[in-house]
Amino acid sequence: MTHKRPEDLRSARWFAPDDLRSMGHRSRAMQMGLSEEDWEGKPVIAVINTWSDLSPCHHHLRDRAEQVKRGILQAGGMPAELPVHSFSEQFLKPTSMLYRNMGAMEVEETLRSHPVDGAVLLGGCDKSTPALIMGAISMGIPFIFMPAGAMLRGNYAGQKLGSGTDVWKYWDERRAGTIGKEEWMGVQGGIARSYGTCMTMGTASTMMSIAEGWGLTLPGASSIPAPDAGHKRMAAACGRRIVDMVWEDLTPDRIITAASTRNATAVAMATGCSTNAIIHLIAMARRAGVEWGLDDLDRIGREVPVLANLRPSGKEYLMEDFFYAGGLPALMKEMSGKLDLSVTTVTGRTLGECIEGAVNYNDDVIRPMSNPLYHEGSLAVLRGNLAPDGAVIKPAAMDSRFQVHSGPAIVADNYADLKKIINDENYPMTPDHVLVLRNAGPQGGPGMPEWGMIPMPKALLKQGHRDMMRLSDARMSGTSYGACILHVAPEAFIGGPLALIKTGDIIEMNIPNRTLNVKLSAEELEERRAAWTPPEARYERGYGYMFTKHVEQADKGCDFDFLKTEFGGPVPEPEI
Ligand code: FES
Ligand code: MG
């Protein structure tokens, strides 16, 4: 194993030379009360913190940063906390997805421009995990991802509440008139009882699990509830370990390989993963130079069943139950036949060594391969004349009668039109109709908002229906459920076939065959295309302008074209 010498540290270029510039760096470090003992011969570790006062899922990360620093100091490093964007899923408009790439750039450039040798990345709320990891991969220095962890189970009137999932459920009931304001307020007060991320297996928990499955966290880290004392201990352990990783020069390219990417994808499938994970997995893998696409996900999805019996795929359990059952190491042990156990993790040990002692304490929460929650992975990739570059659906979380379905479209051009349709009690529709929302993709949304779990129309709710086939180029929250086809690519806003369909056209979906078509001839589609005019640009200046110029489509992970690994030559290290 390589062992770096102190003079080889990247930070030594700032702190060590006997010259004018370095004297400036040292004197300014002394300005903060530090002295030579703090930096000389020591790796400087960035503690990249996504804490903010408007990020409830990360509200404990100020304190966790202190625990990470404690570990760094114990191991002989110098901690340096560097704040970045907080990716608050609940407060950012139009959608946090608009800012994932901006955050990834911020992380990459923050690491590059500062005198740091390694990093611990603190995050977990949906987009924060991919943003942090994408940026750190592109920078290429050793890093550990420290998952923020899930919040406590929700509770209202003796009922367990799951983040997101139960909000949608109770909202449908409120709109159907079966619960009143008082119950609704009770849910509001009980659904988020502590700091930490959503505690269903939504996007946040899926992404944190993927990071662990990839080998980017300490073993078990992704399943520890945020308020558990073990979470603090894990944070300190991240601090201790990253110092050694710097000496060992354990860079991300040694951890993120094609084999570990297959593992991460298999883990995602076994968790019953959020559809958002598809986009982020592809984007993260591509940053690491691993060619990864929808077909890889679909293939692995067919081989790996859903084992985590957690909402929204499962009916009952939440992340806290998952942790008590043994957490992700126990799940990986159950599915170890589907994993390459020889890959390296941030621990320096193999994945196999990391999960060796894992025990499944509750085989209803973490199902064995012989008794899965769902026989295939939770995602299916569909293609056809309506989605030449693919679309996705989560069959594990929908009414199984939609496995093979065809019905007439009801098309909404934007969210305002859609609202009129879903709020009209007398809108003429049957449960066989297909409700379509378009212009909600990466460019159209903009930022591909989570509008894809289109609320059930009042007209069907009052007839007692709770699911119907819905179709869009948007994403949906990882805590959602229902027969929702998402991520249709290319999106309508740039003239994908979704832009051309009309109310009354017949949409056909066949999940076993992985197809999605509109019953129109190629000629008819061509004629409609000739008559189509592109919508007006969403932005004429600022970040949004850059975003729309450079964002790629969902099937490619929605990264910016110029941030891809193979785009241009490598970025030079800053001159001193
Ligand atoms: Fe932060 Fe769900 S809102 S994880
Ligand atoms: Mg979410």
Automatic annotation (TrEMBL):
Q: Where does the signal sequence lie?
A: none
Q: Name one Pfam family in it.
A: ILVD_EDD_N
Q: Which Gene3D superfamilies match?
A: IlvD/EDD C-terminal domain-like
Gene Ontology molecular function, alphabetical:
hydro-lyase activity; iron-sulfur cluster binding; metal ion binding
- Please give the start and end residues of each transmembrane region: none
What superkingdom does the record give?
A: Bacteria
- UniProt keyword annotations, A-Z: Iron, Iron-sulfur, Lyase, Metal-binding
Q: What are the Dihydroxy-acid/6-phosphogluconate dehydratase C-terminal domain coordinates in residue numbering?
A: 364-558
Q: Which residues form the Dihydroxy-acid/6-phosphogluconate dehydratase N-terminal domain?
A: 42-353
Q: Which InterPro entries does the record match to this protein?
A: Dihydro-acid_dehy_C, DiOHA_6PGluconate_deHydtase_CS, ILV_EDD_C, ILV_EDD_N, IlvD/EDD_N, Sugar_Degrad_Dehydratases
Give the protein family: Belongs to the IlvD/Edd family.
Q: What is this protein called?
A: Dihydroxy-acid dehydratase
